[in-house]
Every structure is written in C-alpha cells, then in structure tokens.
C-alpha cells in the first residue's frame, strides 16, 4: 500500500524529471533547427585547477548589452552578416534575430560562460575566436555548440 508521503515523493520526482526532459528536448530542438550564429569572443582564461580544463567565455556582444536586475531575462536584437557573425542591431533595423540574455553579477550573460574540453587540449582551444551558437528564432534562446578559430573553422 502506498502512503500519501510516498505518493507525493513519486509525484514530485516525476514532475522534476518531466521538467528536466522538456528542457533537454527544447535545447535539442534549438541545436537541430536554430539559426547558426557566431559571437566574437573577448578575453578568456583557459584553465581551472578545481574544475579541470575549460575556457571561461566572455562575448564582446555581451559588453554592449544593458544589464538589468540580477537574474532578469532580456531580449536584444542582433544583425547577422554574410559570415553569420552577430552584432547588436540598431533600433528599427530590418531582418534581425532575437537574442535572449540575462543579468548575472551586474553584467549581461549570453548562453553559457564556460566551455569544457578534454584535459591537455588547452593549446588547441586557445585559438578560439568565436563561439558557435544555435539560436531559437522565436524565443531567442542561445545554445553554445562549439568554438571556432579566426577563419571560422571548427575547433
């Protein structure tokens, strides 16, 4: 016989798993169907003793976005050039794409702030100059899928 407490625990676990799976499915759709966009990387730090090898990412576009209240989500409009490199679109510009970002530690934060890679491959990824994103055309949600060099070749 299932007690009420166990029923609540099971229902709670199923709810959490459902939300997580929906989030994963949404990200997978964005990766599959989203617009390919490259964001220019700012200064970065490719080492972490506590977490292993990773690259701390900062995108130059994020420095141009106004920060809101901590945790606040905002939408910026971006323009894409013929190489698919994104820049902040001027107000009223045609053919723009939404880019969803949020405020963390008083600054605009796009997608993710780190790219993890296999230990010992820091020199390979030190050549990164762009983050490769897929952006959902409706929501502006951005998913980082890789890093590119100065010639936009995958790393």
List keywords for this structure.
155 residues; alpha+beta; 4-stranded antiparallel beta sheet; 30% strand
Describe the overall structure:
- The chain has helices at 4-33, 60-64, 122-125, and strands at 35-40, 54-56, 73-80, 86-88, 97-104, 107-109, 114-116, 130-135, 142-148.
- It folds into 2 domains: 1-33; 35-148, no CATH class.
- The model has no long low-confidence stretch (mean pLDDT 87).
- The termini are far apart.
- It has 155 residues and is α+β, with helices and mostly antiparallel strands.
- It contains 3 helices and 9 strands, in the order H-E-E-H-E-E-E-E-E-H-E-E.
- Helices cover 25% and strands 30% of the residues.
- The strands form 3 sheets. It has a 4-stranded antiparallel beta sheet.
Write the layout of secondary structure elements.
Blueprint: H1 4-33, E1 35-40, E2 54-56, H2 60-64, E3 73-80, E4 86-88, E5 97-104, E6 107-109, E7 114-116, H3 122-125, E8 130-135, E9 142-148
């Amino acid at each position: 016989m299932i007690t009420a407490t166990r029923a609540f625990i099971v229902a709670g676990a199923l709810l959490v798993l459902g939300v997580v799976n929906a989030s994963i499915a949404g990200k997978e759709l964005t990766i599959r169907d989203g617009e390919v966009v490259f964001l220019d990387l700012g200064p970065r730090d490719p080492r972490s003793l506590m977490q292993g090898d990773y690259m701390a990412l900062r995108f130059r576009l994020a420095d141009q976005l106004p920060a809101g209240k901590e945790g606040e989500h905002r939408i910026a409009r971006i323009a894409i050039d013929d190489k698919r490199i994104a820049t902040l679109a001027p107000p009223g510009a045609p053919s723009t794409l939404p880019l969803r970002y949020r405020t963390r530690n008083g600054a605009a934060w796009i997608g993710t702030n780190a790219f993890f890679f296999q230990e010992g491959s820091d020199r390979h990824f030190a050549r990164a100059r762009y983050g490769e994103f897929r952006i959902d055309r409706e929501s502006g949600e951005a998913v980082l899928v890789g890093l590119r060099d100065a010639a936009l070749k995958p790393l």
